[in-house]
Specification:
TIM Barrel; binds S-adenosylmethionine; globular; about 300 residues; 10 helices
Length: about 300
Amino acid sequence: MKISFLNRVRFSPWFTQLVILRRCNLSCGYCNEFDNTSAPIPLETLKARLKKIKDLGAFSINLTGGEPTMHPDLPELVRYCRQELQFLRTSMISNGFYMKPELIQALNEAGLQDIQISIDGVKPNRTTVKVLDSLRERLTDLKNHAKFKVVVSGVVGSCPPAESFEVIRFAKDLGFKPRVLLIHDHDGQIQLNEEQLKAFQTIKEQIPKSFPEFTDYRDQMIREGTAPFKCRAGSRYLYIDEFGKVSWCSQTRQVFSKDLMEYDYSDLRREFYSYKSCQDRCTLGCVRASSSVDGWRRQEQPVAH
Ligand SMILES: C[S@@+](CC[C@H](N)C(=O)[O-])C[C@H]1O[C@@H](n2cnc3c(N)ncnc32)[C@H](O)[C@@H]1O
């Protein structure tokens, strides 16, 4: 079915996250998005999924996991997204542990445009080792070799606030783009105390404002427990798991799921309008960024899914 440009802009995915393997080298205590054993999804299966995502009118692609750098075909996947499918933006999320010069060089050549690394604190603790003390060498390698943009996020709620400040300072000193994220509970919902919320506000004041922070609905969520927009997951934002199922996001895999290969324009359109009861207290940054764009205009009335 041919989609008009206007409808493509409205309903097609602006941001799609594709899980290329569920396996991760880490076991962060707050995370429910990994296992320690599963095999990488075969290259040809992933290429077929990427082609289908492009056919749905998607503008950009983000490769995720698990830990995407554990996939042996990561550079070829990036090359396929950039050079053959020509997504406007090809990015990935990584914990950074395997970002050594050889892999960075391969990703440069493949045409990766940006990488997001979130860093939970400074010192390893019982919950996480994804911290500055484990990653300084890898981040320096990225500074010295990466031709792609590096976004480093501090995470409020995963360590004492002083450590989040230190992460942001380190990221700025290396010339990376700093961001701040909020830890969520196992339903993707905000779960922070007063001290952590104060730390969040302080960090936000320290980082240059840019999209999506300009339209940051987190302020309203923190203040009133509501969101000034309707969640567009399943449409403007897509999450596709290792089985090739589309879900609203990583935290709603049990709530909504449909095979990507059967997903079509009517699904995009329906999910654009469908009401998600989790939206008000959701902290998932990628979903928020894709949904908050039309927070300025009158929202349709909730329609139960
Ligand atoms: C599931 S990981 C996949 C990519 C990669 N393994 C990594 O660590 O970045 C994607 C992102 O989700 C974040 N994440 C997982 N569980 C979270 C939670 N409960 N609250 C906030 N962020 C979380 C991770 O820290 C990471 O930045």
